[in-house]
Write a structure and sequence with these properties.
92 residues; 0% strand
């Protein structure tokens, strides 16, 4: 899946923070770095994101929830899943 290799030098403190975050997420340091790059630089162009929003808006018959209600529904579903013995998400 990944084909490009990148080598960087970081401080001991940066490494400590990366390893702590990776441990918190139960993920690799590399995945934390990839997520940080995506968060900082984005995953696609603005045009790509606008096109995706337009395509989603064309979908008919699917209920729409405003962001706050959607977050609440997701949190409730996660809580129910935890009650059933499913693991928490990395962010939860």
């Amino acid at each position: 899946m990944y084909s490009e290799r990148l080598q960087i030098l970081i401080s001991k403190e940066q490494r400590r923070r990366l390893e702590a975050e990776a441990g918190r997420r139960k993920a690799s340091v590399a995945s934390v770095i990839r997520d940080a790059v995506d968060a900082e630089l984005g995953r696609g162009s603005r045009e790509d994101r606008l096109r995706a929003v337009a395509e989603i808006a064309k979908i008919k018959g699917v209920p729409f929830l405003p962001p706050d209600e959607l977050r609440k529904a997701i949190d409730e579903a996660r809580a129910e899943g935890i009650d059933r013995g499913f693991p928490r998400s990395p962010a939860g």
